[in-house]
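#struct-help
A.M.: can someone run this one for me? Single chain, 161 residues.
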Amino acid sequence: MTESAIDKRERNRNWLIIGAGVGVSYGFAVRLLSHFLDRDSSMVMTVAFTCFLPFAMGCVAVYFAESSEAQRVGTWLLLPWAALVGALGATLLALLEGWICIIMFLPLGMALSSLGGLTARFLKSRRTRNVSLTCVMIWPLLMMPWEGRVFYQSELREVET
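D.P.: on it. Structure tokens below:
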């Protein structure tokens, strides 16, 4: 193998690590933010958090990994898992979640983060890629407060007989 091919592989590997690291950092930062903003932990039980956050983590990880060159389909599907597992490990070490929550969440999170990874490849090929990534990253944050007001309204009614 030539030295330039080895350098190219090493540079690509470094971008993969950076992509996974950015995905982990983003996921853990949003989890920490939700912990400090919502002390009763109801925010982490929203659809926005359980569905859109893994999607966004996968999208962010693959988006950054594709900075050096286009990656293979396997990378689009599997690199988001590294970001997800890393963020879940960080929440476990920070005592924000327990083992049972992580194990129950992992299959859904893996599927949605892979879908986010596939979406990142599409976003990377568009002209408005930076705006698109920003929209994906803030999507879970915008949905969390809105979801509670729209889907989980409680009403008290009095019925007299």
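A.M.: thanks! The first helix runs from residue 3 to 37.
D.P.: also worth noting: The helical segments are 3-37, 47-65, 73-93, 99-124, 129-151.
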